[in-house]
Amino acid sequence: MLKRNSFCSKKIRMRNSRKKKKTTIKYQKTSTDAYISFLTNLSQTIIIILISNDKRIQMKTIAKIFLVALLAAGTMQAAAFEKVAKSRSAKVTISSEKPITTGYNDLNILIDEKFADAAVKIKVFMPAMPGMPYMDNVAEAKNLGHGKFTTNVNFSMGGTWQIHIFITPKTGKKIRVKTSVNI
Ligand SMILES: [Cu+2]
After folding, report:
1. Number of domains in the chain
2. Residue 121 is inside which H or E element, if any?
3. What's residue 26's pLDDT?
4. N or C terminus: which one in the chain shows less Cβ crowding within 10 Å?
5. How far is the centre of ligand 1, averaged over its atoms, from the C-alpha of 177 (Å)?
6. Ligand 1: distance of its center to the CA of 128 in Å?
């Protein structure tokens, strides 16, 4: 009986490790998508546990919950910062693998593929405040293809920074998308 049980859990472990490889690819989405999938998966597995009297199914589903939770936590760390900004003609997703801090930060900019050959520029600025002058930093974004861009920008102090993304398509009007970040 003991032997059978340990064989059983070994089989489950093997199956889980195979499943993990598959799900790793599946969870290479945005953190929001991953979180929604995680919640859906969690509620489904809880329902299976509740309606099942089979110990083995219960064990499998519990293992699955831990696996999914682990993957979700990993994916959420992958994008520590993410913000979606919209204008009338463009949607921009700005993200960072690390939390935004004072100083230079690597930012990923994702725009619609129809702007894949556009020039993208970022401007961050903080309006003048009592005892503090206006501050800004402008950076060109590097085109990685398929609407993905990357840039490195300086937030020279803590506080609320305005972010403007300028998209200049090969043909057509220049687009400005606005958002902000608190540091
Ligand atoms: Cu300031």
Report:
1. 2
2. strand 119-126
3. 39
4. N
5. 22
6. 6
